[in-house]
Amino acid sequence: MMGKHYDVVVIGSGPAGYVAAIRASQLGLTTACVEKWVDEDNQTKFGGTCLNVGCIPSKALLDSSYKFHEAQEGFDIHGIKVGKPKIDVAKMMDRKNSVVSQLTGGIKSLFGANKVDGLSGIGTVLGDNQIRITAQDGTVFNVSAKNIIIASGSVPITIAPTPVDNEVVVDSTGALDFDEVPKRLGVIGSGVIGLELGSVWARLGSQVVVLEALDEFLPMADKQIAKEALKIYKKQGLDIQLGSRVTGSNVSGGANRTVIVEFSNSQGDHQITFDKVIVAVGRRPYLDDLLDDGLGIELDDRGRIKVNAHCETNLPSIYAVGDVTRGPMLAHKGSEEGVMVAERIAGKMTQVNYDLVPSVIYTHPEVAWVGKNEEELKADGIEFNVGVFPFAASGRALAANDAEGMVKLLADSNTDRILGCHIVGASAADLLQQIVIAMEFSASAEDIGLTMFSHPALSEAVHEAALAANGHAIHIGNRKRR
Ligand code: FAD
Ligand code: NAD
Q1: Average pLDDT score over the chain
Q2: Does the global pTM surpass 0.90?
Q3: 463 an active-site residue?
Q4: Which residue in the list 5, 310, 364, 455 is annotated as catalytic?
């Protein structure tokens, strides 16, 4: 069956794809977005990993578990007496699921409001501007498009020593759906997912052991910030074992199955028994059924679709955005690429500033950074000033009894231009955003220093870190006085 012709067909409705589709349609381009994911009632599930099994459900559980943890340990100091809180896991999951439904349903409405055709089925790029769509019920039809945007996303990586059965050994999706709090939880990988989901279950009472193959903790972060974060996570009870390579696992038992995980580190070979294990060792680009044989789209050495700075592939009028291509696997990176591609198709000259992609780990405290870190600047031979302000010196952080961590700001010592900002602390993601904006405008540390900040607010720590970079913070001693 021959289908419609569009200006733009987007394959995949995650944050890269649905945003690209909406923007393209806003610009007057006839647009469809193809999504293969359906629920148990055969209804299309828009929103991709992020809305369905990623950013949103994980944050819902992080927020619920943080409230539980506060009720358990954070109230007494404020003079609030409550009984021992209990967790109703089923209710917590229901809330998480309803937040997800609200948002995924919202995409359906946004498609309607923006005149994007949401098409259900697996999209396969055939060449000659044709896309084959294979619906869940087996119906097959083609649509054609002047421009094709591939936004097929990513899926969890699995490793041979710990095969995922999604009952005892789970991936990130399974870890969002436990029906009870596991007593002993193993987490393989101390990356973003391991830390966020490990924190959720640790707050609810699991004894959590994190096995990380590398010797270094958070190697992509500024060393000082990573060291501070590690200290805080350990204090919270996450038993993070660096330099520990998992070598095998053995699931056994009847109704209450457990898993023995074998690993080796510099002290030798070890085994630990867990009730559940989360495998969180990274994600890989997802290309199954996407490209017709002989299409000739180029991939890079990590199996991602190869693109230039404007997300153009080697084939004319075919673009790739989001996790399926190079760069950090982050929702906001994909969305900005989606907007850029839609706007460029419509004749605009939009670009993405890849130097300013913020990173956040949504634990408590949060860890967030943007731009270069100290180690990168040293390696590049750039001279820089460092301004550090600890939250322990922030009136607002102390008032909230939430004063762990610091803001660290790096500025060029010749031009004073801000080169990076690294935060571990409460609300780090939101605090960082003001520096992302400042850096987008090429601000100097002095620009931030001369800006008036409300008192008392956590953001004053950012102000003080900027002052400290030039040696004149008010509420701490300065490394250098200028
Ligand atoms: P995806 O969201 O993966 O969407 C791709 C879509 O394409 C899917 O719906 C898929 O079904 C569909 N698809 C694939 N192939 C086809 C085909 N052939 N035909 C039709 N449809 C197809 N990032 C953040 O920035 N912040 C966070 O807090 C965060 N938290 C996360 C927590 C977890 C637990 C996980 C797993 C990830 C998290 N991420 C977070 C990462 C984020 O989810 C991804 O970076 C983001 O979803 C990538 O968007 P995307 O649109 O490229 O791909
Ligand atoms: P990751 O790359 O962040 O971390 C994986 C960790 O597993 C690394 O530290 C790695 O050294 C370790 N590892 C790899 N193989 C191992 C092995 N065999 N044994 C032990 N450790 C091993 O990946 P992730 O945590 O799975 O997250 C996947 C992606 O999802 C990330 O790219 C991230 O950007 C994205 N994500 C983002 C957020 C956020 O923005 N807050 C949250 C969750 C996920």
Answers
A1: 97
A2: yes
A3: no
A4: 455
